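Running this now, will post back.
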Amino acid sequence: MKAKKKTGLFSKRFMNSRITSANTQKSEMWLGYFAGPCLLYMVYYSVAGTYLTQFYTDVLGIAGTFLALMPVFSKILDAITNIIMGRIIDKTRTSQGKARPWIFLSGFLIAITGCLLFMVPKASYQVQLVWIIISYNLFFALAFTIYNMSHSLMVPLSTRNTKQRDGLAMMQSFGMNMIPGFLVTIILPIMIQKFGVGTGAQDTWIRMMSTISILAIPATLLEYYFTKERVTEEAINDSGENRTEVVPMSKQIKACFTDRYWLLIMGFIVIYNIYNILQTNSMLYFCNWVLSNSVDGGTGLQVLVNAIGQAPLGLGIVILWPLVHKFGKRRVAQVGFLASAAGSLLILTNTGSFTLVMVGLVIKSFGALPTYCMMAQLAEALDHIEWVNKFRADGFSASVYAIIITVTAGIGQSIILSGIHAFGYIAPASTADVINQPPAMQTFFAWCFAGIPMIGFLLGSLIMKFYDVEDKVPQMTADINARRKAEAEARGEVYYTPEEKAAMEQEQLDRQAEEKRIEELKAKCAKKGLDFKTEEAKYQAKLAARRAKEEAKVAKKNRKK
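Update: finished.
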């Protein structure tokens, strides 16, 4: 049965995406997939990542069993909301897609709940614990779940063009990881020092983190307005009706858990998030108590460590793009992850040596560049499921992805807090305190920062050895397009593949550009008294020479192959 055309907020003209092209656009790449996620994840890393644990332990003085266990138990609720949200996304039918509307909503929720995390009342210990439980779950189990699930589907739903999708995935990952991590770990420590955010300045923490949390609103608006769900739109006819049937969750589960590529990429996502959270959450402690022995010293070192360690990631787009298209995502990832493991091992050999730590960080950062392709690889796994089963499993996959993100975040925080409790962490009374943490505590921070990531990179390289779905993408895309075309023709409708739509659009753009060029040349000739036919002949001769040169280059390249 056909779904009815929906009306409401997202049917209004002002809610339309600013992206209309069948091809991905520069504005889409830079604003929707880079700037938007960059701002949002800066909020996430600041508010709920790097500094939330420090706020709980050093400002509120809450530690021990509660903080070790609370994140894990809260993920039970989180898992439930992820499953519910996945189903909701699957059933969402709007002219703006099924994922983008939830991105729009999530920004406001993240801004509000991010503020609540730090507005812990100055009341009894029991009241504070209740507030922490409620605010923590509102942020992770509700607000961030809605964003993360819808956001995770944008690359798979953006386009079927592999090259364009790779570009969007890399830009998205670059925006999510490198820039936010750089800003949070370098700029925020400077702000903390400047504004006096110390072990007892809760009011200052609230002001700073509330200001940061509000950035979630413009971040999600950018991602909403400058993205487009082209894959979703394939099922929408000219009247706005979406023919996609809601696939039962049981069928999606079976399809996913019987698809080896889906299992492999989800396995890698689990590994990646665990070691990434551990190294992120342990960064501050590693700098404070392994490379240094005080909060102030650690802050300075943290800035320097991140400046050197994150700098190679800035070259990620430039380096990774040509490598991926020459050797493939899987092969580049295999080699890169092995290099990252080697860099991590170098750090572990002497964690007290600033030079070795810096060299190891640079190597690790370069090797980790292929993680920018992770969402593109997930998209290929979802395409493979559609190819085999004749339906997509976006909703369930988004649920699993979000559960992985949130559960691993809880596991990571729990591991850090459990280690702090088990190995005798000495909390500073002020930023001026000089403390020699127990050797076991220092070893724990070092392994969270470099040891576990090393193991993760080795496992990631092994997984990539078997993740050869990339080689099947051309055949999968052709078969899916042929299937959709046959279905459309059976209904008496005309169906254009994404490639055909893009070609038609490019043809129109080329025609318009040519018409404009001729108009401008005629105006120039009329103004300067030149002969139009003569000038046009000169232009065509130059154009022919340029084309011949390009064809010669292509021929030379093909002969080398």
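Residues 25-229+260-479 form a domain with the Growth Hormone; Chain: A; fold (CATH 1.20.1250.20). More later if anyone needs it.
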